[in-house]
Amino acid sequence: MIKATLTGQRLVALFLFGWVIVNYPVLAIFDVQASLAGIPILYLYVFGVWAALIALMAWVIER
């Protein structure tokens, strides 16, 4: 029971962290007219953060 509560708290904290790093002020930092390998930096940031959050959620749940 305690492990399930701790896992839930970690997932909520991860959700809040993800919400903050995908919110407007942080996204504005990556909204530049540059690209890496032809892909805009903003797109790389959004999809990179998205993939990292999924990996972190899987790690928290499997742990």
Runs in which pLDDT lies below 50 for 5 or more consecutive residues are: none
Written as H for each helix and E for each strand, in order along the chain, the element string is: HHEEH
Q: How can the largest sheet be summarized? A: 2 strands, antiparallel
Overall SS class: mainly alpha
Number of strands: 2
Task: Give the overall pLDDT as a whole number.
Answer: 95
Residue share in β-strands: 5-15%
Helical segment count: 3
Please state how the strands of the largest beta sheet are arranged side by side: 1-2
Outline: elongated
Helix fraction, binned, reads over 70%
Tell me the radius of gyration: 15 Å
Task: Describe this protein's structure.
- With 63 residues, this protein is mainly alpha-helical.
- It has a two-stranded antiparallel ribbon.
- A hairpin with a 2-residue loop joins strand 1 and strand 2.
- It is elongated and about 50 Å long.
- 0% of the residues are buried.
- The model has no long low-confidence stretch (mean pLDDT 95).
Itemize the secondary structure elements and their pairings.
Layout: H1 2-21, H2 24-29, E1 35-36, E2 39-40, H3 41-62
Antiparallel strand pairs: 1-2
Helix pairs in contact: 1-3
